[in-house]
Amino acid sequence: MASTRLTLRLIASFMVFAMGESCCTGQDVSLIGRASISAIATDLSGETDKQENGTPQNRLGGHGSAIAWLGTGNKYVMLPDRGPDDGATSYRCRIQIVEIVVDPRSAVPVTTKLLETHHLTTPTGEHFLGRQTQFDKAHPERSLRLDPEGIRATKNGTFLIAEEYGPTVREFDAKGKQLRVLTTPARYLVKNPAGTPEEELPPNNISGRQNNRGWEGAALSDDGQKLYTIAQSPLIQDGGLDEKNKRVGINVRIWEHDLKTAASREFLYQLDDKSLGCSDIEWVSPGRLLVIERDGKPGNETKAKLLYEIDLSAATDISSIERLPVTGTPEGVRPVGKKLFLDLLAPKHGLAGDRFPEKIEGIAFGPKLADGSRVLIVASDNDFRGDQDTEIYAFSVK
User: Fold this and answer.
1) How many separate domains does the chain show?
2) In the sheet that 159-163 helps form, which strands lie side by side, from edge to edge?
């Protein structure tokens, strides 16, 4: 029954996409190749200590949580999240600068090389940590906990990082020092942060993001003026949870923020099924973005690892709406249009199978290829597991 409902919602998603020329069709997206980064590789931090669970601080893991092209050559920034064990360790948050060379004519069409590692720090040099207990309720601005999940590179050489503990969006310089923090709309914040996931759920919080379900991605317009973030799941007050704190909602908010004027809007993105969540968002063209929508199953269990192209042009600004229903839409509200852009499990790509990763979490357009098509990189988050490589998939988008 659940599979049938998901199929019906997939069909509905194709039907609600706004009329007009889309970025491309499934026939215009083809797999070039893939690369795997070893699960036990080390980064360039030079650290030699271990976290509370024994995982080395310098493990090169989790960095498929987000990825962004730096705008020239084959350089990308990859973003690890809060580290292993879901916020139970004091992982020092960081960014990884990686070279990803994509050459369809080569016998090895996708190769990677780690170039730099930089810790994320406060303006005074303190390390941001993945540990959930590192918050200051009385002075939130002093909190050191960080769960980075979305990143985009600006034309000024800085990085905008969306993280889900707050959730907040922060700007860092090229070496990882924090420059500023954007003001988060109050509706996304929890009033009672806590040291365990259970303590941050209702009844302790009756509004704000769900635990570990805040902003999961970031997109930046080509002119560098507008930033977009997307929550992984509906907010608590938007029907995200039932009375037993089980996820039931499908109405997710997208936040649009003008980096010059601070003006903002919000849009309604509807999941195909309550079992799915959003993992990243990427700019395509004015009014159009890509969104990862996926389930939380690995290997042969997975049913949905999808990239949608969405259209904001006819969508309603819902920033004045305090609460959304569990399903459906409020009267007069039109959600974003969505159209399937890429099904990673489609047989033609040959990626599905028992080793397919659970967490497809990073997407980024890269440089143009010789034939004029554009590179699209899709990355997996291996959760710092020592038995699961990070996967890099390179596609050609015509």
Assistant:
1) 1
2) 148-153, 159-163, 168-172, 178-181
Q: How far apart are CA 94 and CA 91, in angstroms?
A: 9
> What is the C-alpha end-to-end distance of the chain, expressed in Å?
37
Q: What is the pTM of this model?
A: 0.94
The CATH number of whichever domain residue 327 belongs to comes to 2.120.10
Report yes or no: 228 and 283 within 8 Å, Cβ to Cβ: yes
d(C-alpha 88, C-alpha 133), whole Å: 8
DSSP string of 16-51, one letter each residue: HSPSS--S--GGGEEEEEEEEE-TT-B-SS----B-
Tokens at residue 147, please?
A: 């769960």
Q: Can you read off the two tokens belonging to residue 384?
A: 């710092």
pLDDT tens string 61-75: 999 999 999 999 999
Which strand (E) or helix (H) includes residue 257?
A: strand 251-258
Q: Which amino acid is at 125?
A: G
Average pLDDT, the chain: 94
Residue 133, domain extent: 2-397
Altogether, the residues listed in the chain come to a count of: 398
Query: 265-301, pLDDT tens digit by residue?
Result: 999 999 999 999 999 999 999 999 999 999 999 999 9
Residues sharing a CB contact under 8 Å with residue 232, sequence separation 6 or more, in sequence order: 149, 164, 210, 212, 213, 214, 215, 216, 252, 277, 278, 279
* Range 126-153 average pLDDT: 96
DSSP string for 125-188: SPBPB--TT---SS-GGG--B--EEEEEE-TTS-EEEEETTTTEEEEE-TTSBEEEEPPPPGGG
